[in-house]
Design a protein that fits this description.
By secondary structure, the chain is an all-alpha fold. The chain is built from four helices and no strands.
Length: 67
Amino acid sequence: MSLDNANKILNLHNNPAFENELSIEVSPSVIEKNDFNLLPSRYVLSPEKKHLNDFYRSTKQKVRGYC
């Protein structure tokens, strides 16, 4: 981890900016729905990863429809 990355993390911790590319505020019910998974990637994704997840979900649903 670079010093710049560490400073970004500390800045977000001290000055939360929710709903940006690095952080999000989630309710306990959302955490429960995600099986108490606290991995940041579960909640905060880059636009590219969000697109890939949407694609994966749509493909998965289509495949299930044929089974």
